[in-house]
C-alpha cells in the first residue's frame, strides 16, 4: 500500500475542536491507504483516547478501547432517570413529529453538563450510531435555536464539517449572521475565512451580512471594504446592501456620503427603507441642519413613502433648531392640509422655538390657531408652556391675554396648562 504524503495531509481541513487535542501526527502512522472519512475517524479516535482509559461511559456514550490501535466502539445510551424538573419540561416540549434520532440527541443536549461532558464526543457518537441526514441536522439546529440553548454555535460549527450535513455557502452565512447579532465579530470573521478556505464562493448575501455587522459595530472602513468587494466581484447591489452601507455612513456621521450613496441608489431606481430615511433625517435634525433635513424629506416623498407625524416632527425640529420657526410653522400647515394632526411633540417643538425667540405673541397666536382647528395640547407641550410662563412670572396675565385673544377672534380657548 502507498504511504500518504505528509504534505498532502498537512493541507487537509480538520475541525478546530479536534485538531487542538489530538496527540498523534499523521506522518507517524503506518503506511496504509485510507479515505478522507477514515482520516476523520482516526482523528476523532485519537481525540477520544485523551479522555478515556480502557473502558468508560461519557455523557451517555459507552466507549470500549482495549488497545489504541483498535477501533473505539460507541454505544448510544439514553438519558438517565435523575432529571431536573426544568429538563423534564424541556424534553416534554420537543416537537411530536421530530424523529427519534433527533429526539435522542436533543435529550442529551438538554441534559448536557459542560463540566462533565464533551460536546464533540457526544456529536461524534450520535453521527456514528444514528447516521443522520441533513434534514436531521437542520431539525436539531432549529430546535436548539428555539430553546435559546447556548450550545447552538458549537453544534453548528461541528455540523458544518460533517459530510452528512452537506454544508453550503448559505449555512456559513447563517452562522456569520448569528455571530454578528451577538456582536462576536472575531468569530464571524473566522467563520467567513473558514468558508473561503473550503472553497465556497463569496456571494452578495454573505458580504451584505458583513457590511451590516461592521456597520453596527462602528467599523466604517471594513464595511466599505465589503461593499466595494461586491462591486469588484461583479455582483449586483440590492436594497439591503445599500441600506446597510447607508447606515454605516449615518452612524459615522458622514451624512454627505450617505446622501451621495442614496442618490446613487435612486439613479438605479433603488430606494432605501423608511427606517434608513428616518435615520438620516434624524441625524440632520439633531444637528440642526435644516437644508439637509429638507432634502431628505423630499427624497422620502420621491421614494413613494407617505410622511407621518414622526417624520414631520423631525423636519420641524431641524427648522426650530436652525431658528427658522416660520418654516417650521409651514410644515405644520402642510400637515393640516394633508390631513395629519400635529402630534404633541410637534406642538412642543414649536412652542420651544417661540420661547428661544422670546416671541410670546407668536406663541399665543399659535395656541389660538390650534384651538380653532380642534387640536388640544397634551403633556409635553403643556410642560413647555408652563415652564416658559413660570420663568416669565406671568401665568395669571397670560390667562387674561388669552381671553382677549378669544374675544378678538370670536372663538373660545381653554388653556390646558397647569399653574401649579
UniProtKB/TrEMBL annotation:
One cellular component term from this protein's GO annotations in UniProt: mitochondrion
Domain of life from the UniProt record: Eukaryota
PROSITE patterns hit by this protein: PPR (PS51375)
Sorted UniProt keywords: Repeat
Annotated InterPro entries: PPR_rpt, PROP1-like_PPR_dom, TPR-like_helical_dom_sf
Pfam family, one: PPR_long
PROP1-like PPR domain span: 257-390
Gene3D superfamilies: Tetratricopeptide repeat domain
PPR repeat copies, ranges: 168-202, 203-237, 238-272, 273-307, 308-342
Protein name: (wild Malaysian banana) hypothetical protein
Species annotation: Musa acuminata subsp. malaccensis
Lineage: Eukaryota, Viridiplantae, Streptophyta, Embryophyta, Tracheophyta
Amino acid at each position: 500500500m502507498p504511504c500518504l504524503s505528509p504534505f498532502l495531509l498537512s493541507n487537509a481541513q480538520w475541525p478546530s475542536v479536534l485538531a487542538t487535542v489530538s496527540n498523534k501526527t499523521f506522518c507517524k502512522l503506518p503506511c496504509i491507504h485510507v479515505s478522507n472519512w477514515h482520516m476523520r475517524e482516526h482523528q476523532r479516535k485519537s481525540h477520544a483516547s485523551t479522555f478515556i482509559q480502557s473502558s468508560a461511559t461519557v455523557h451517555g456514550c459507552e466507549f470500549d478501547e482495549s488497545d489504541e490501535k483498535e477501533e473505539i466502539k460507541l454505544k448510544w445510551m439514553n438519558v438517565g432517570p435523575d432529571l431536573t424538573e426544568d429538563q423534564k419540561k424541556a424534553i416534554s416540549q420537543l416537537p411530536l413529529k421530530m424523529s427519534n434520532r433527533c429526539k435522542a440527541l436533543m435529550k442529551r443536549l438538554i441534559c448536557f453538563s459542560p463540566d462533565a461532558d464533551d460536546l464533540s464526543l457526544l456529536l461524534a457518537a450520535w453521527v456514528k450510531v444514528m447516521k443522520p441526514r441533513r434534514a436531521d441536522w437542520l431539525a436539531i439546529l432549529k430546535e436548539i435555536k428555539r430553546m435559546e440553548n447556548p450550545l447552538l454555535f458549537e453544534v453548528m460549527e461541528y455540523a458544518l464539517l460533517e459530510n452528512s450535513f452537506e454544508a453550503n455557502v448559505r449555512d456559513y452565512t447563517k452562522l456569520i449572521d448569528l455571530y454578528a447579532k451577538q456582536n462576536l465579530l472575531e468569530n464571524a470573521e473566522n467563520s467567513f475565512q473558514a468558508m473561503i478556505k473550503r472553497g465556497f464562493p463569496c456571494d452578495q448575501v454573505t458580504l451584505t451580512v458583513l457590511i451590516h455587522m461592521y456597520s453596527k459595530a462602528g467599523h466604517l472602513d471594513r464595511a466599505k471594504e465589503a461593499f466595494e468587494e461586491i462591486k469588484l466581484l461583479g455582483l449586483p447591489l440590492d436594497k439591503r446592501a445599500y441600506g446597510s452601507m447607508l447606515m454605516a455612513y449615518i452612524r459615522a456621521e458622514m451624512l454627505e456620503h450617505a446622501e451621495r450613496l442614496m442618490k446613487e441608489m435612486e439613479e438605479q431606481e433603488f430606494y432605501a427603507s423608511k427606517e434608513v430615511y428616518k435615520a438620516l433625517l434624524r441625524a440632520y435634525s439633531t444637528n440642526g441642519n435644516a437644508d439637509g433635513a429638507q432634502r431628505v424629506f423630499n427624497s422620502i416623498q420621491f421614494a413613494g413613502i407617505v410622511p407621518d407625524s414622526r417624520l414631520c416632527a423631525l423636519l420641524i425640529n431641524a427648522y426650530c433648531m436652525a431658528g427658522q420657526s416660520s418654516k417650521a410653522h409651514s410644515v405644520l400647515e402642510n400637515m393640516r392640509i394633508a390631513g395629519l394632526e400635529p402630534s404633541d411633540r410637534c406642538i412642543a417643538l414649536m412652542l420651544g422655538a417661540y420661547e428661544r425667540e422670546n416671541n410670546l405673541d407668536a406663541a399665543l397666536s399659535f395656541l389660538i390657531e390650534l384651538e380653532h382647528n380642534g387640536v388640544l395640547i397634551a403633556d409635553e407641550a403643556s410642560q413647555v408652556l408652563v415652564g416658559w410662563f413660570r420663568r416669565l412670572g406671568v401665568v395669571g396675565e397670560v390667562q387674561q391675554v388669552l381671553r382677549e385673544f378669544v374675544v378678538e377672534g370670536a372663538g373660545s380657548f381653554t388653556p390646558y396648562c397647569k399653574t401649579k
